[in-house]
Write a structure and sequence with these properties.
2 copies of one chain form a homodimer.
Chain A (H helix, E strand, L loop, with lengths): L1 E5 L8 H10 L3 E4 L9 H8 L14 E4 L2 E4 L1 H11 L7 H25 L12 H28 L14 H16 L1 H7 L4 H11 L2 H8 L25
Parallel strand pairs in A: 1-2
Antiparallel strand pairs in A: 1-3, 3-4
Helix pairs in contact in A: 1-3, 1-6, 3-4, 4-5, 4-6, 6-7, 6-8
Chain lengths: 244, 244
């Protein structure tokens, strides 16, 4: 069974949460927009988004094709993949719980994006820098502690294993690794301090990174480096000032 | 079977998408934070959000209690309720599709909120008015046409009934009604023009509003009026200017 993943070819973005799940489960997949040839590339992605012609056309990437099924929205794709590849609990209550956490991560990711685009996604960062500085300060001072503090507290509850729901990772653990990696890239000064406050999240992140398939993936060319076109962008002026 | 819904007592907010589904399905529910007495009120809501003490503590309201299960995140609650009350397709592909649309609506709702809070949810609107004007202009000019245009196109595809997936409404139809009602409240001038462009959405919205249980609900005291503490706020300076 080979999946087709559709996402923008030059950024990790929201697609990365799906890539990590596909890589960990060793599910074969074609990263469609990063390939060229017939039925591949960005045109293949655009074609499926035409709601006048395509039944169940997605509003935006990422989306996943599995046989005749097309599933969009990052958390919805993971909801679909999770139970098929041992990356979600088997019972309904467990599945709803990890999906709920993934949706909380999705909210956080949208806030990360808006640190550099608080006015409009259609404008350049350079056209909204004063607003971005204000929003990023609130993000670092209030939103990061609120979200990371929540997950840190969940990890502090009595557990049977090193992952959020036990000894085996779910797609939420993979996503939390990506969140921590992205925050370290975008806000290195703020995270150097925060790291000490979120020890369990840091340990979880290291456990994910050390998994053989994830480790192989991160060292491969399939992992697109962080860059300033993605969600996590490193603009030093949005990070904590070096004087505190 | 009676549900307990937990949401802030004085706004429609994200809780309203759940209320509409509960009302249409005639499922009994207690709107916990709006009642007073033992185990009720806002303290009961706060208590369940303590991640140090409560297993599966939600990050934020709304959340729904069903027996021993607690489900949070608006779209996740609807994912749970939909198939139980005939408000979602029965097969997996159909369920994933309506959930995907609900998640797209959730993204839109977050953008609606940020029109009046582009800098920080922790600040008053009065402290971010210039930024709000810029963001609201982009929202009206680019984001509303993108989202409503998408749903209008989906509605334009050959259908068997007056709702998005056929003759019976799903929770997505109820949510689209709420979106249209909220936009009309918040941006009456912009929507007076847009209404002509989104005829199918307007018709869908009227069909939902005319459903007996929804109609009863909207006329009852259970429906909190729109107000300037919620997601959809009417600030005339964020609407289209009367001169165009």
């Amino acid at each position: 069974m080979s999946y087709r993943l559709y996402y923008w070819p030059s950024v990790q973005g929201r697609g990365e949460f799906v890539r990590l799940a596909l890589e960990e489960s060793a599910a074969g997949y074609v990263d469609v927009a990063r390939e060229s040839g017939k039925g591949l590339g960005v045109p293949a992605l655009m074609k499926l988004m035409d709601a006048r012609r395509v039944e169940h056309a997605p509003f935006a990437p990422p989306f996943l094709q599995s046989g005749r099924l097309i599933v969009a929205q990052t958390a919805n794709i993971l909801l679909y993949l999770g139970p098929r590849h041992g990356l979600a609990p088997k019972n309904e209550a467990g599945r709803l719980w990890v999906h709920q956490l993934q949706l909380t991560i999705a909210d956080f990711v949208a806030e990360v994006h808006d640190t550099h685009h608080p006015v409009a996604a259609s404008l350049y960062y350079e056209d909204q820098k004063p607003e971005a500085r204000r929003r990023a300060a609130d993000f670092r001072q209030r939103r990061v502690p609120k979200y990371l503090g929540y997950f840190e507290q969940l990890l502090g509850r009595e557990r049977r294993g090193k992952y959020l729901t036990g000894a085996k990772p779910t797609y939420v653990d993979l996503s939390l690794f990506q969140i921590m990696a992205g925050l370290h890239y975008a806000f290195p000064r703020a995270m150097a301090v925060a790291r000490r406050r979120y020890k369990r999240l840091a340990a979880l992140s290291e456990s994910v990174q050390a998994r053989p398939r994830i480790n192989d993936y991160l060292a491969s060319e399939r992992r697109i480096p962080f860059n300033e076109d993605g969600i996590f962008r490193h603009y030093p002026e949005l990070d904590e000032s070096s004087t505190g």
